[in-house]
Input
Amino acid sequence: MIQKRNLHWFKLLFVWNGSVLPKLLPRLVMLFVLSIVVVYFKGTFFNHKIPLNPAPFTLFGIALALFLGFRNSASYDRFWEGRKLWGALLNTTRSLARQCVTLSGYQSPAKETDTFINYLIAFVYALKHHLRGTDAGSDMQKWLPDDLAQKLKSVKFKPMIILSEVAKWAKDARDKGNMDSILLAAFDGNFNELSNIVGGCERILSTPIPFTYKVMLHRTVYFYCLLLPFGFVDSLGWMTPIIVLFIAYTFVALEAIADEIEEPFGIESNDLALNGMSDMIRNTLLEISGKQIDMNPAPDLYIAD
Output
């Protein structure tokens, strides 16, 4: 994920990293060339003049802009919902770590509290890999006992298995007299919140925006852009390619942005920085337990100059 500094307005015009322009450039060049050809032949196609003027494009452009606005709002809602869920993950794991360190019968630092903190860290990394479909093996080996890490290799829903192990830890603490029933109920409430967070992330991941709606809007945008040169050639002349390029960039870029942020858990430049957020949660949990932290920046969280 890219985090931009407050750039000067002029520099912002030429920002490349994080922009959808690199992906759109071939399409925009194609439309620019088409516009030049249309102007050269004065809007004639196979000796037949295409009878278009700017009026219908103005009316239809307004309607298309409204549809694109709705599409972007729906995509951003998914992006923001994913961010809120990971914010709730940070708060809930912090609460559990604080309860473990300060309220349980174990005095930190202790092996039992270290085990609990490591379980929470492993849960966070397991959720990240679960959402991205990546291999969680190295992170599980680092934060979990060998037998549990081996067990998770054949498990699909790793976060939930780790959450079950965390719940068993709390039950064992209660059985050993290091936690009363009231505190156990408080822990269980936070465990339920972690389960809700996993379910919320999976809902976003498994329920995309209906494909037929995306196809309809995609076809409409490109059909509109392909017809633009024929509508403006008589009134704009050789300015047509410039105007068409500007209008096409606006509409096509809006559609591309909506596609990019629709799935917030990916690895594209404008997706959520799950690596960075996972490392931040790891560091705050380690600090709560009195451990040293690693301040190296995560690879998917960087500043665009």
